[in-house]
Amino acid sequence: MKHVGIYIFLSLFITVTIIRGNEKEITPDSIPEFFLQQQNIFPQEKIYVQTDKSNYLVGDTIWFRAFLVDACMHTLSTLSNFVYADLLDPHNRLVDRIKIIKENGIFQGYLDLPEDLHSGDYRLCVYTRYMYKEQKEYLFQKKLTIDNYISMRYSVESVFKSGDRKGELIADLHFKEFNNGKSIIPDKVEFYEKEDKVRQVPTVQDGHFVFKLEDTPPENMLHFQYTIGGRTQGQYIYIPASKKDYDVSFFPEGGELPGGTQSRIAFKALNTDGLGEDIRGVVLNSLGDTVVKEFRSLHLGMGIIRFFYDPSLSYYMVCWNRQGLKKEYTLPSVTPNACTLSAYWRKDNLYISINKDSRNTTNKPLYLTILCRGKILYSKRWEKYWEDGNSLRFSQRSFPTGVLQLLLTDENNLPLSERLVFSLNKGEKTVVNFQTNKKYYSSREQVKAKIEVLDQQNIPLSTTLSVSVTDPNVVRMDTGMNILSTLLLTSELKGYIESPAYYFSGDYAEKQEELDALLLTQGWSRYKIAEVLQGKAGIPGSSPETFQQIKGMLYQGISQNKPAPNYPVRLFATASEKFVESETQENGSFCFDNILFADGTIFVVQGSTPKGKSQVLLEVEKDSLGITVNPFPLAVREPEREWIQAETEKKIQILSQGDIARTYQLGEVEVTASRIKKRPFFYMSKSPYSSEFNKSISGKDLINRYHPGSVMEMLQHLTGVSIWRDGPTVYPYIPSENPFNAIPPPRAYLLMDNVPIDANELNALMPQYIAEMEVVKGGRIATMGANGVAGAILITTSMLPVDQKVVSPTNIQTIAPIGYQVIKEFYSPKYEAKEQKNYSQRDNRSTLYWSPDVRTTESKSGEFQFYTSDQTFSPYVIVLEGLSEEGKLIYWKGEISVK
């Protein structure tokens, strides 16, 4: 597999060399070839993640599947074999990171939420290493709400006001019980000033905790904690902008504004919380004449205004938001001699025309190119474009579903105008047939379901789907994004798109103009278009991750600062007897890259001179993955805020009846069991050569059994070890590693706290300083090089006097790099026996069923089954997401009726 990846990218490198070596003539006819070469040289990935739900309690598990696809075709990607998932807190600090390996062609994973997480809106960020290096702006992100039972019992009303000094905020927190709205005064309230520095709020005024914030916290999120009834809960609350304002940006269609012609200008209004702000207004010219009597934003502050643009006049907008705040803006000025694209849909046809500035009298050759996800769909000279009414018409059926990029270029392939439009090819829609074995279900009853996916000709499709079934009484449905909105829209655009799934819900015809307004404010930029048009293909600076790697540098010399070429380096896992060996390159670097290992694997990396000496400096390269966040607003709109509060109250009533409530509402309990013993404190100082395969015994056991007077005496009681005495010469040896009975026998290699020592040095140690002794022999001595040819004895100390501490060797490092996550199955209880159905513990599962891989074929339906819970207030919600072998995207939401 690794060699295949190397071959692919070597081929791409050769392709780049050939292209640049040939210096192909730059003409409009070369545009299709240039874009094809770009896609071959720099293939890209997209990613979408379905989670089992969007809101969780601490202690829950986030189950998810990552759909990694080819950015152009939307088929499953064959580039990367690993995906990373980061959970970030509201201050964008890393809570957890996992690495997922592709198994059975898919990426599935889970994140166990710690019990001590503070409530708030977290971010799930998922990506490949290849995407991280090459396409940071396109990493997948999703907001997840995490609560705990205490934060759900109490609501926190927050008010923030500006203080006397610049940047100062005054926070007012008022605590209430959710059930009855009664005020409650916590025992203590504290807030986090910087990082983990906590300051207590000293005063209470009529049940209100009021305090000053010197600076606005990161991401505008107040981090505080409160104690009620002996329980402390941390929480994050969004700080809305103190000044309610908005700003409007303008985007001429096609990028520039020609004069003396009918023009369209898109606008986008954002408030101080980063959300779209709906506005209305009028447009006037510099003479005071009203040009547009009234306009309104279409959706989330975005809209389009149309009027005849006189190049001799200037224009300005007067607008108001819903609160009546009035603003005035000067509209963009005319670009002399501009020549831009204009496009619109009428029924199922796309009409494309050219808007020329009235002063532009040239009729030079122009060319139209249409792309979708970087793939050329059309590229021709535009004949007689200057004639009135000479627009081009394209049937919607001639384009795939997705963002179309329209490019207008001249005879030198220089871009003049760009326009994005969205195409919905109805022939690509899929039909999902979902059937269950019953119409209604009662509690703890088995549900058997079948799924069939068809195309528009009713032909069954081979698909891979992830399936989630949740209880809507305790799970808030994610209506903001889905696989359609992510892969077809947001993954094609830079920046934050608010509620993208809205454009794919309901009747598309009603959303078409709103979606067009969105695209008029965006630009497609996965490739550097101007450079591609000139035959300058972008080249990736890294390759997809197909295997895991451990790499670093080895240095030699007295100061250990010179690269050590052709020196041996060994790598072995402490839980295995196997090891691999390599040699450094001319620059002293080494790389073990044909390896696979699970998370938690501990490795020892050892370098040496060609003669097996340890006088080298080993440096293992640390993982280069940092934390990358493309921020999006965490503010909540008022209607959504009210809905969340209503749903939370319903959730409390349900959870208070069952097992989750009991988990969090325990009273004071006396613990009589003995405390779990902690791992011995000497564990981390043990030698990297330590292994469960070695014979070992603790120093305490040796003392209790044999009462040795010295450490040398302790050694003679080790199984498989003998002591050689010849006058003053005394040292341990391992008979099994002396097969020819040499006299004197070869010495065992002694390592104390991972540092080589001479046998004579043992006389200065007292037995009570020994924590553990371990014998290394057989196949494992090969990992120790020439020093361990006769076996080794590992001595780990505890409470060693300061003057006897030793320095760790420079040629060995013990590392625990991030490995792939070992899959675990989603647990769904079965109620097959009568005793199980009558069990008194309430079943309040919020996720009834989750599967990351339900497959349909042309001849067989997908099937799954699960048991209902004890919550039968309203129908369960089922969500299917996935794709077909041909790259058709599938999203379906339905219900399973219960009573």
TrEMBL record:
GO molecular function terms attached to this record: endopeptidase inhibitor activity
Location of the Macroglobulin domain: 46-131
Record-annotated TonB-dependent receptor plug domain positions: 698-792
Stated name of the protein: Uncharacterized protein
Organism of provenance: Parabacteroides goldsteinii
